[in-house]
Amino acid sequence: MNSILLGSTLVAVAWLSVWAVKDHSRPSKTWWLFAMREPDEPRSKARWGADRPGAQVPVESKPMQRPWRRSGS
Amino acid sequence: MRSLVFFSEMLILLSVVTVRPFVGILLWSWVSFMSPHKLLWGPGANLPWAMFTIVALVIGCLVAREPKRIAWNPTTVLIAAFMLCISLTTVTAMAPMDDVVHKWSAVMKTFGVLIITASFLTSKERIHALIWIMVLSLAYFGIKGGAFTIVQGGANRVLGPPETAIGDNNALAAGLLVAVPLMNYLRMQSQHRAVRIGMAVMMVLTLFSVVGSYSRGALIGLLAMSVFLWAKSKHKLAAAVVLPLVVGSVIAFMPPAWMARMHTISNAEDTDSGETRMAIWHVAWEMATHRPLTGSGFMGPYEQRVVDQFVPGAASRAVHSIWFEVLGEHGFVTFFVWLGITISGFVAARRIIKSASGVPELAWCVDLAKMSQVSIVAYCAAGSFLSLSYWDYYFTILVAAAATHEYVRQSLGQTSPGWVRQIGPQSRLAIEGGRVVDAKARAGPAA
After folding, report:
1. Residues B237 and B225 in one domain
2. Which residue on chain B is closest to A5 by alpha carbon?
3. Mean pLDDT, to the nearest integer, of B343-365?
4. Can you give the residue range of the structural domain that contains B27?
5. What is the DSSP letter of B154?
6. Burial class of residue B38, CB neighbours in 10 A (0-12, 13-18, 19+)
7. Per-residue pLDDT tens for B376-386?
8. Do B148 and B123 fall within a single domain?
9. Cβ–Cβ below 8 Å for B23 and A20
10. How many whole angstroms from its chain centre is CA B157?
């Protein structure tokens, strides 16, 4: 067990050293075990905002019905 | 075979250090925290790997093109002040000068590298990599000790690596306790599910290792750490169920001999070790009160001739308390500087939590800050019964917290409109649609 643990640690340290100095501006490959989790996406208005499906929008005054007019008339 | 693999890997990595000096920081941390060469046989075990790393690091610093600027912040300033203070108390030390200078040079090296480490922590990947190397260094002992405890039914004590700062069973347990929150940080912030699960398993095994050390101080530290971990957890209800369940299960696994030993905590002053600890704490206090500016100097409490000058008849020995060790060896002035390093790290973490909460890009900083605080509590609680005052692992956490705070400040200053921008130490202002608004007021009184 000691050998397995020590061997794993040696591999991990070498792997981590390479990861630490690689170019992080590019998207991370899946096999980089040390990659950090992507930040949670901010709540978009489409899903969580006032205009999400079924949301009731508070209004200051009641909508008024304007007299119908033909466009261009 | 082990020796050959280690030797080859170190040769390759040391050559990398000369062009990428940050790898030298990782390598130094690994060699310093884990002492992997002590786990080998053959000539590689006795080579000065830490010195090789420092030489390669210095070459790398000279050769590499990246900016070379010391990161001065409250933590690094206090570390530098502490180095100055212990140098002054070394001049007036009462123990044999050879022993004093030997310990002084070891502590100076440790803290000197901390300042270099701080200057290299300039990106989130570097801070993250440093936390990884810290976890990897102690995970070896946590996993091994945990498996040993489970297989043996907790009948035998878990010991640390010989000839290291955590060689003693008590020191190892305290060290593992300090590492557990960092494992939790990696569990929360790793991208891969397998890594997150692995970290959770590692944490449980490390808890087995802590309990399997039969350290009473570590048990107190474990309880303090668990309470603080719960207080800092995002899901308090789930944590209130999981934490007692895991800690309780680990404790329930231990045999009656372990329970009997832990029951002596309540009457520690009646036990041999409790009595001798009280006696040496009294000696350390007397040293500090008689020489408040300088203490006895390094190794004073270990030297019978010195101890006799303060409390005649008391036995010289390790102080077994981080607080009394620094007080006795260096007096009140250096003690408050040393304490200030911890306070500065804690305050930096607190400021991160206050200013970065709610910013998705900085969620990792908040998690790291919270777990750093848990580590600080674990160290202060478990260290109250141990001589780990100059343990580099702990001070590296404080340096990482200070570097993360600097990262947060810079990030908030550069965020695009819509994100919180910090202007001044206390104000939290946000820019929305070209207008500056008060983020606290906007979030409401609960924020």
Report:
1. yes
2. B140
3. 91
4. 1-68
5. T
6. middle
7. 999 999 899 88
8. yes
9. yes
10. 23
Interatomic CA distance for residues B48 and B45, integer angstroms: 9
Residues B29 and B79 in one domain: no
* B274-301: average pLDDT: 90
Residues B226 and B339 in one domain: yes
Instruction: With a cut of 90, say whether residue B65 has pLDDT above it.
Output: no
Please state, in angstroms and rounded to a whole number, the distance separating the CA atoms of residues B412 and B158. Answer: 45
Task: Mark yes or no for CB contact B128/A10 under 8 Å.
Answer: no
Q: Could you tell me if B64 and B109 lie in one domain?
A: no
Number of folded domains that form chain B: 3
Domain-embedded: residue B38:
yes
Q: How many CB pairs under 8 A join A and B?
A: 94
Give contacts of A35 with chain B, Cβ < 8 Å. 190-192
pLDDT, one tens digit per residue, over B107-134 is 999 999 999 999 999 888 999 999 999 9
Q: Judge whether B339 is closer than 8 Å to chain A, CB to CB.
A: no
Category of B299 on φ-ψ map: left (φ > 0), alpha (ψ -120 to 50) or beta: left
pLDDT band at A54 (very low <50, low <70, confident <90, very high): low
- Please check whether residue B69 touches A, CB under 8 A: no
Tell me, yes or no, whether B42 and B167 share the same domain: no
**Mind telling me how many Å the CA of B278 is from chain A's nearest CA?**
38
- Looking at the structure, tell me whether residues B235 and B182 fall in a common domain: yes
Same domain assignment for residues B195 and B136: yes
Residue B333 lies in a domain: yes
Which residues in chain B have their CB less than 8 angstroms from residue A37's CB?
Answer: 188-191, 364
Domain assignment present for residue B112? The answer is yes
Which pair of structure tokens corresponds to residue B8? 């080859």
On whether any CB of chain A is under 8 Å from the CB of B128, the answer is yes
Q: Phi/psi at B156 (nearest 5 deg)?
A: -115, 155
What is the ipTM for the molecules in this complex?
0.80
